[in-house]
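Annex B. Sample input.
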Amino acid sequence: MINITRIENSDPYNKFAELYEQALRNNQSQPEAMVISSFDSSSQEVDSRFVNLKYVIKNEWTFFSNYNSPKSAQFKSHDQISCVFYWNKIDTQIRLKAKIGRADINLSNKHFNERSKEKNALAISSMQSKKISSYQKVLVNYEYVFKDINNFKKRPEYWGGFTFVPFYFEFWQGHESRINRRHTYIPSKNNNKEWIKSTLQP
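Annex B, continued. Sample output.
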């Protein structure tokens, strides 16, 4: 589930909230799942992965991950990302473009403290994407965290939130005859609080 709190009162944000609620009413599985694509400046490669969006607060979108992961290094080397949601229950795709950075430390602490011990144990025990000798070693590291209750009292510095503010929205809604609806929103050059809406051909 996505915590949508005091979102920006504008067309693209209201449209996202409306479609999200529609997806929930239609029993969409994992509506918080989104694909994030990033660019690695050192290898000159584009990379993509699913993450779970947790918050939209005003105009800031936040998910959580390991700060030592490959995607974190990619965000640091090139701070522009693209994101995609697809909700098959309502045949809707939402595309975003944004600049990304680390979330406020207070939000990361709050989110960590509200999560289950099982989820936090994985965040603590896993050096995300690093090579390891076996899957059994993953399980050993995970179980070891539970031996000391103090492990759960403080968020590890290597885990926390990433926040981005979109500068591009595209809403794609499917049609049985492929006459799909496509609308985009970009900020006005004269006033970045206003959005310019355009319609695209299918």
